[in-house]
Amino acid sequence: MSIRIDKLAVVHPKAQIGEECVIGPFCTIGENVKIGARTNLQSHVVVDGFTEVGEDCVIFPFATLGVQSQDLKYVQGSTSYTKIGSRNLIREFVSIHSGTAVESSTTVGNDCALLAHSHIAHNCEVGNRVILSHGATLGGHVYIGDYANIGGLCGIHQFCRIGTTALVAGLARVTQDVLPFTIAEGAPASMRVVNRVGMQRVGYSDEEILEVRRAFRTLFLREQRLEVAVKKVLETLGNKPHIQTMLGFIDESHRGLARPDTATLDLNTSE
């Protein structure tokens, strides 16, 4: 099967379109775009800038990929990039913007589901198998770890980090980092419990989930400084890879952690 480009699409002759791609009506593909094999742009999709889209993606109408950053620091004529992996589902009106600084990139991994009206701003790094629900918005330089689930209509502040297998509830306002394997909600968002169901779906054992819960309680549900709590977790569970992931995330945090509020204590002790 050859490439199928609708007669109503506008595809720059220098754009690189993979085998068996489908480019639907009223799509616009820029000069420096590369699209992998078997990717389907249904209609009215704009792909511009220095943008790479992987194989086997399905892109719904009115999505815009790789367009210029909205950051007011962007200098006209700068070259920056957008890199989108393979097997991604990109629904209606999704927007993914290029990096701001010269030679910088916005990246999206593989096997993600970006639901309608979700937005990925400049210089974000989105991992693999991430879900952005309807209307979820990532500010610039946001990091989203693998298997994270971002709820509908939530907003994540610039430079925040969401750890692997974390869940951010709908309508949350995230202004600080959310640890791997946890659930955060609220405005401002705070971590509430361990994401047990999410961990099970990824393949973590009951024992590993229990260890994460023990670490979470030690870190946040006792009256002690975080530095002391981290040391205790390191001494008791520090040889576990999933615990090392949590502690490494804490060490790399710059905006601080979305620490649990007082109501979280009763929620966790009653489990």
Explain what the structure shows.
The chain is an alpha/beta fold and 271 residues long. A hairpin with a 2-residue loop joins strand 27 (182-186) and strand 28 (189-194). The strands form 3 sheets. Strands 1-4-7-10-13-16-19-22-25-27-28 form an 11-stranded mixed beta sheet. It has a 9-stranded parallel beta sheet with strand order 2-5-8-11-14-17-20-23-26, with no helix packed on it. The model has no long low-confidence stretch (mean pLDDT 96). It is elongated, with a radius of gyration of 20 Å. Helix content is 19%, strand content 27%.
Characteristic key phrases:
single chain; 271 residues; alpha/beta; eleven-stranded mixed beta sheet; 5 helices; elongated
Secondary structure topology:
Layout: E1 4-5, E2 10-11, E3 16-17, E4 22-23, E5 28-29, E6 33-35, E7 40-41, E8 46-47, E9 50-53, E10 58-59, E11 64-67, E12 81-84, E13 89-90, E14 95-97, E15 105-108, E16 113-114, E17 119-120, E18 125-126, E19 131-132, E20 137-138, E21 143-144, E22 149-150, E23 155-156, E24 161-162, E25 167-168, E26 173-174, E27 182-186, E28 189-194, H1 196-202, H2 206-220, H3 226-237, H4 241-251, H5 263-269
Parallel strand pairs: 1-4, 2-5, 3-6, 4-7, 5-8, 6-9, 7-10, 8-11, 9-12, 10-13, 11-14, 12-15, 13-16, 14-17, 15-18, 16-19, 17-20, 18-21, 19-22, 20-23, 21-24, 22-25, 23-26, 25-27
Antiparallel strand pairs: 27-28
Helix pairs in contact: 2-3
